[in-house]
Amino acid sequence: MEHLKIKGQVFLKQIGITAWGIIDAKGTEYRPNFMPEQLKTEGANVVVTAKKINEEFSIHIWGEPIEILAFHTLNPL
């Protein structure tokens, strides 16, 4: 499966339950199946290498489900 390189900003989605996500410059929302603790800072600028995953069932109704393979944070501008 092809790896994605996503440059974006971390956000906390609150729609009944809370979940961490990453939004890129185009407005695409990605929903990691597991968000590393080091990335759980709302507004943090990050670059992640990820792969899309298929979910048979999810309580979430937003975002592209991904698995984060590698990541790093960027300094704020």
Would you mind describing this structure in some detail?
The structure is a single chain. This protein is mainly beta and 77 residues long. The chain has a single domain, classed as OB fold (Dihydrolipoamide Acetyltransferase, E2P) (Beta Barrel), CATH 2.40.50.500. It is built from no helices and five strands. It has strands at residues 3-15, 17-24, 29-32, 45-52, 64-74. The chain has a five-stranded mixed barrel. The model has no long low-confidence stretch (mean pLDDT 88).
Overall form: globular
CATH H-level superfamily: NigD-like N-terminal OB domain
Number of beta strands: 5
- The percentage helix is under 10%
Task: Indicate the radius of gyration in whole angstroms.
Answer: 12 Å
CATH architecture, by name, is Beta Barrel
Instruction: Output the strand order for the largest sheet.
Output: 1-2-3-5-4
Question: Average pLDDT value?
Answer: 88
Structural class: mainly beta
> Total helix count?
0
The major β-sheet equals: 5 strands, mixed, barrel
What ranges have pLDDT less than 50 throughout 5 or more consecutive residues? none
